[in-house]
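Q: Could you fold this chain for me?
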Amino acid sequence: MRACGGVAAEEEILVALVDRGKEAIRYLEDRGGVSLRAWPAVGGTIDYRPWHPGWKPGARTLDAGKFALADLGEWAPRLRTGAQSAWLMDKLDYYAQRMHLLPPNPNAPRRTRLAGEGVGEYLSSGSALAGQLLRECLNRGVQVFTETPARELIVADGRVAGVRAERSGRRLAVGARHGVLIASGGFSGSEELKRMWLTRPLLFTCEIDACSGDGQLMGMAVGARVGNFDAWWMPQTYSAASSSEPTNIGGTREDRSLPHTMIFNQHGKRFVNEAQNYYDICEAFGTKQDGPKNLPAWLLFDEQGRSRYLMLAGKVPAEPVDWYTAADSIPELASKIGVDSSALVTTVEQFNRYAREGHDPDFHRGESHWDVAWGDPENKPNPSLGTIEVPPFHAIPIFPGALATRGGLQVNSRAQVRAALTGDPIPGLYAAGNCSTGHVATAYVGAGATIGAAMTFGYIAARTVAAEVTSEAAVAGD
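A: Sure. Below is the predicted structure, expressed as structure tokens.
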């Protein structure tokens, strides 16, 4: 994590993530009723930046497995679900068996449900984890409010002592004897905050609209220090199941890593290692300062790729849509999307030479352990490089997107929010997750780095409060 975060990473945060993260998991498994399992150390479970010292080929990430929605009883309809929530297959099998290399097959197992398809009886992925956590809260008598947005923090005698919220159109004051934990997520729901806090264009995100930066603003209103505004970047594109908006489940990792794929910009030029991890690749699209120099951009693949990989075949729609373009030649394709024909032809010809040689001197695709892990070992001479020469040719727009935005309330290693002027903890105020700085700044070190950091600092906040309560009781002689 030090190598990934560089000078932007805060040492005390890194130490807390390593030392307290394992405590949090142990507590949840031993006393919290939560069940987790490790991903296999194979293929795509590899660390995102394997060129740094200390990298591993996988097995760091934990998965919540299969969760029965019925365990939530009447609360089941209130749990938010998405396209990857349904248990259609075991995600660990997907990685262990390298299923992203499967050939086109209408009966192939699916990881995501189709539009209009119900979530079913069992959940997977993050939804399974959320289900387990909610179940255990309910089992322990925790009172959970939904549709009750917090509006401001209550401060009394120099200490955060509660929140003012709204519920059913009425104002509601909730007192907090020991403090308030802000875990309100990012800020992509606010165009104004994205404009002020992000340096790169962010066109699409997986965050819900309710992630509007309200937690950060409430903290700032009581004097909190803020920083490390960024996003968990992930390019987004379309799939055949998409409607009018791109989706990260269309494959913005596996698809770009497969042979017979290439990304080009409005000038008909390549501008990035297409197989790069989904966080780092977004940097190449440009910044607000220098303009979106590589937008618009397209993912290009040919009939070799479509006929060989289900991942690419699934991007070709059965009916005409405005985001998909196909042509029998590269010049025709360029003409249809308004790109300089001669430039794109030259780019594709050069790319094909690199693919035949197995070496990409321009962007070094296929050289890192990540590229190889997500490539096709049967493809020679390089698992990540394949020619684009068999018509028809397919082009789909690709955009700079993100899983979520992040950053804001600066926390110390005890999850306490720091005051802007002094850097001292604001009494009674804690933060965890994407509204805070409790993660590895300027990096996405691996799968689970988002929720893992959030859970760790949520645990740290609870332990900090518990220790303070115990200390107060001891002083009082209780």
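A (continued): The first strand starts at residue 37 and ends at 38.
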